[in-house]
Amino acid sequence: MKALIHENVPLAPLTTLKIGGPARYFIDAHSPKAVLEAIQFSKHKNVPILVLGGGSNLFVADSGFPGLVLKISIGGVKLERGPETTLVHSGAGEEWDRLVQFCVESELAGIECLSGVPGSVGGTPVQNVGAYGQEISEVFLNLCAYDRQLEQIVELSRDDCGFTYRTSVLNTTAKDRYIVLNVTYSLKNAGLPSIRYPDIRREFQGHGSPTLAEVRVAVRRVRARKAMLLVEGDPDCRSAGSFFKNPIVTEREFAEIQSRASGVPRYPASAGKVKTAAAWLIEQAGISKGYSIGAVGVSTKHTLAIVNKGGAQSDDILRLAREIRTRVLDKFGVRLVPEPVFVGFDPGIMEEFFATMES
């Protein structure tokens, strides 16, 4: 059966930010075959393709998308158990947090601290999703994807993906080349949970060694306090999650930041680099939780989330994002880089926000 093609489908309801105009064409693909049909349709119509997962890391312009939006809804989870590790094979359209819950309940360790991260499985390797001391790159084995350049289905290993902080080749050097169909992770059987991150350690002070399930609950509790857990009816959750990446700077640049304020957060990064906290920089630059401009504002729980308070348009989000970046740049000399994918914006906007990465 051929994939059903819809026209002029509003994208706002399909994103967590609840902003964005229509897609000219829309296909909801529940199988690799439907993905291939969508590719052929886009070629026939000579229109670009936007791959949509859970819509949690997406910022769509009010003008919408002039091509084909391909929603990946490929499901299915299979466990391949070994003596020490278990391979978890998942369709790219599976809800990520549901997969984490399933793995935790199966006593499989390695992704428990990624509980509550919104979106779908297919997006996890693209962005090298990470939170509270864990990253996808640590447990990723391989993925199956449609290669739009070779026009065939291929397999990519961990090395092929070139993972770095919040990036991979899938959203940098090979952006738009691959459409992820399924992903395989390698998790530890009956492994100990990770409590490396300070926020999580504090949840268990004086309580002994937590279980995987207890860490999952704690992570979701911490995320909820920061409006980073999607809760129906919570206005702070009408966002794209963290709007800015945590900056990674050189030691010299970090020393310059320290010269302008005390108590600057410092986290390990690659050799010669330092990661610091975007949320801390934003607050120190004078943007507090709950700060608002009309229909948009900063979350009342966490300064990294820009919230659609109701009826906001994409220009409203851009206005607040510019103010936040300008204040941080003026105070610390650091240029914050957006984390969500911008869709449908003119080249000038893209140049403004993405041309220059870290300062």
Report the average pLDDT across residues: 94
**Cα radius of gyration in angstroms:** 20 Å
Quantity of strands, as a count: 21
Number of helices: 10
Query: What is the overall silhouette?
Result: globular
Residue windows where pLDDT falls under 50 for at least 5 positions = none
Q: What's this entry about, in short?
A:
With 359 residues, the chain is an alpha+beta fold. The chain has ten helices and 21 strands.
Structure description:
- β11 and β12 form a beta hairpin.
- 27% of the residues lie in helices and 27% in strands.
- The chain starts with a strand and ends in a 5-residue tail after the last helix.
- The chain is built from 10 helices and 21 strands.
- The chain is α+β, with helices and mostly antiparallel strands and 359 residues long.
- Strands 6, 7, 8, 11, 12 and 13 form a 6-stranded antiparallel beta sheet that branches. The chain has a 4-stranded mixed beta sheet with strand order 1-2-5-3, covered by helices on one side.
Output the keywords:
359 residues; six-stranded antiparallel β-sheet; single chain; Uridine Diphospho-n-acetylenolpyruvylglucosamine Reductase, domain 1; four-stranded mixed β-sheet; Uridine Diphospho-n-acetylenolpyruvylglucosamine Reductase, domain 2; 3 domains; 10 helices; Uridine Diphospho-n-acetylenolpyruvylglucosamine Reductase, domain 3; alpha+beta
